[in-house]
Specification:
Layout lengths: L2 H20 L7 H11 L1 H4 L4 E4 L2 H8 L7 E3 L6 H12 L4 E4 L5 H16 L3 E2 L1 H11 L23
Parallel strand pairs: 1-2, 1-3, 3-4
């Protein structure tokens, strides 16, 4: 990431923090503000984890938050076993993996399977972070729905 883009992202994070402190003319809930801050700081705090999502729209939604980490999709045509092998070979034993499939029945099933299998491969899965994101998402069940946060009155437009 270039210095110019880093500065821009840092400025946007600071603007969010300032708005959060002032709470003036706010439409975002505290959980939504926390979720935005968490996602915008994900690369730095977790040293660019490998993020697993279901589809292209999920990836696109995360990119709106400035996430530069590698993102892999489960909807690739690979079998579950092949997907696990591919994730494990990319992540190795040093890289952390965030499984951010949807929070519906299908996404939870995929998450449970991947989590179990990746842990057998000695891959570090960020389970607590997934739970935290789930809590902050409130009624939202789909990762692609996070893009709706940018349509709220006090949202900032992120670079796409």
């Amino acid at each position: 990431m270039s210095r110019r883009k880093e500065g821009t992202l840092s400025q946007k994070v600071q603007e969010y923090k300032n708005r959060r402190e002032s709470k003036a003319d706010k439409n975002l809930t505290d959980d939504e503000m926390n979720l935005i801050e968490l996602l915008m700081g994900l690369d730095r705090k977790y040293e660019k984890p490998l993020i697993i999502v279901e589809g292209r729209q999920d990836e696109r939604a995360l990119r709106h938050f400035g996430i530069k980490s590698r993102i892999m999709r489960t909807q690739t045509g690979l079998s579950r076993a092949e997907l696990v092998d591919q994730i494990a070979s990319i992540a190795g034993r040093r890289e952390q993996v965030l499984i951010l499939t949807d929070f519906d029945r299908e996404g939870s099933d995929v998450c449970g399977f991947l989590q179990k299998e990746l842990e057998l491969h000695k891959v570090k899965v960020l389970k607590g972070l997934r739970r935290r994101i789930r809590t902050l998402m409130g009624d939202r069940r789909c990762v692609e729905d996070l893009g709706a946060l940018f349509h709220k009155k006090d949202s900032l437009e992120m670079a796409t």
